UniProtKB/TrEMBL annotation, chains A, B:
PROSITE patterns: CNMP_BINDING_3, HTH_CRP_2. InterPro entries: cNMP-bd_dom, cNMP-bd_dom_sf, Env_Response_Regulators, HTH_CRP, RmlC-like_jellyroll, WH-like_DNA-bd_sf, WH_DNA-bd_sf. It comes from the Bacteria. Gene3D superfamilies: Jelly Rolls, Winged helix-like DNA-binding domain superfamily/Winged helix DNA-binding domain. Residues 19-90 form the Cyclic nucleotide-binding domain. This is Crp/Fnr family transcriptional regulator. Keywords: DNA-binding, Transcription, Transcription regulation.
Amino acid sequence: MATNDMSPGARALLTKLDLFAKLDPQARRTLAGLLDRPQVSYERGQDLMTQGALRRDSYVILTGWAARSKTLPDGRRQILSFLTPGDAVGLFGAITPVATSSVTALSDLTAAPFAPTAIVRTIARSPQLAAALVWAAAREQEIMGEHLVSLGRRSARERVAHLFLELWARLKVRGLAGGDQLQVPLTQQIIADALGLSVVHVNRTLRQLAAEGLLAVKRESVALLDIRQLHQVTGFDEDYLMHHAMPQDLAAELARLVTHGPG
Amino acid sequence: MATNDMSPGARALLTKLDLFAKLDPQARRTLAGLLDRPQVSYERGQDLMTQGALRRDSYVILTGWAARSKTLPDGRRQILSFLTPGDAVGLFGAITPVATSSVTALSDLTAAPFAPTAIVRTIARSPQLAAALVWAAAREQEIMGEHLVSLGRRSARERVAHLFLELWARLKVRGLAGGDQLQVPLTQQIIADALGLSVVHVNRTLRQLAAEGLLAVKRESVALLDIRQLHQVTGFDEDYLMHHAMPQDLAAELARLVTHGPG
DNA sequence: CGACTATTTGAGGAGTGTCAAGAGTAGTGG
DNA sequence: CCACTACTCTTGACACTCCTCAAATAGTCG
């Protein structure tokens, strides 16, 4: 099955999973079967999923950004992760009946819906796709781990610099950012909620980094002016983003399964 | 296959996965085949896995505690998660050749080793086990998400109280803690590294909570003296620990797969 | 233009970190 | 059984990062 026969949702997910492995026809067929429903649109600020509410559909994001967040009873909010095109919303949604976090559109966005329980069928039908989904889960865990380091052990200055370097690296590898420029629909309040800081302090930190010539923040876009020094400020090392293909031994194991069947 | 025919590693993992679903014979056979190597021992302080080093075996922890952590170039350390019996070390280890975090024994411990690539074969052979592994991954993500909330938005006092309530809930559901007492091999330095605080401040916070009669900290053990008030301090809600079985619809989907095959 | 929303700046304070030193608490070896 | 060593834990004094409150400025969109 050629890429252009697939739905937009399948293509978006495929683009991401291709970072990890070139999916075989069986995997592509399974993927296409999963994502065969018409796409949906959300406006900025709307929830694709609400903390405490019953789960509905899962999605693959096609265009736009979203944030997964948890809110405490007194209103304090922590953003757990940013979701960009190709990322899944509620991939493991079938497992808990009630959502433990919210997913909110940060910009107008479009997404491809799918049934949460479909993930099991998907895993059973294509070992290669199963491995790719495990990879995607592992990658999310890596990113959350690096965020834990930021929140626990990095200064405000380091957190801000690290966030932009991460977003830049994530967008670049999927062709969504070029040069030192990136389009990000993030307000300072959103950055604050992601980094565990107050809006006021985020503002001061951004202005300080700008004054030092490290970056320039414009409305909904950021320019990284001195990437070398930004790396030094944070000790940024993009290994955790897992922008590389499957290791040899895993590929060999998979090939054996595909050839001889799972038995 | 009866439980007592299995290796200790398979039994430990099974005990954990049973929180989610009663595994069928096919799943149990697959699990037993995965964990058929002799167990290994580590002393307190030793690494089961070292950040920056090539990956070796993966493990299921049988007895004792471990911590997964990342260390910055200047020595600052952040603990990402605590691992207790039944938890897996490097479950997704086959996917990245180099370890992005360390796993260190917090007490003397024993573990059952397995080949990292075996996870793929496991997924292909038993859809039920695959679903259980996805559940385990989703649960880890939930716990990390709650830790992000702690580090980003909770005060020292709230973080400490929340940590002990979490550990207590996790141990109790596996029968490793009774009453209001829990055995934890945690020094104040380790608690500090987990909560993103300094040792000094952890000490002050613990003493304050003790002075208020909320908990009593003894050498390697903690007593939660006023659980109701501890819940109030933190707004603790254990839903995120996913101590419940598989939802109906997912169970139905799985049953269909097991009966009619993945085709 | 008017109503919002987002950004920016100032002043003062609370929460945590750092540095330093003393007191417990094992474990080790003579 | 007692010194000796190495961790831990505890406490005090002080500094600093970051937060809160408040208000002005700048964008954005109907």
